[in-house]
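Practice problem: predict the structure.
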Amino acid sequence: MVPGLYGTWLNLWGSKVSLMAYWSPGVVVTDRYLLQIEKGAALGLNCTLVGHVITKDEKEGYRLLVAPIIVENGAVVGGSSMIGPGAHIHANELLPADRHLPPFTRWKDGKRHRITQPNIN
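Answer:
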């Protein structure tokens, strides 16, 4: 594959992807317009980036969560990891292999932190 070609293709869909990011084989992107991948980020083998999910709310209704995924400069996403909508991996962090980041969480200082979800009715 031509270096930078996949990033260019994602940018045409509306993502903000650095052409200097590394994409391992088997990376799955479900929402091509909901990515912000910065320079030097590396996405491991078979990781999945999901920009939308449907969840149940407190009133037994359903809620659609849609938000961009952010992977900052030099961050590494381990193989077989799953990243949900609104997740944010900070610069130079390593998300271990097979780790799941639920919607609206961030990975910083080697730990998962909850982000406050926007309250949209």
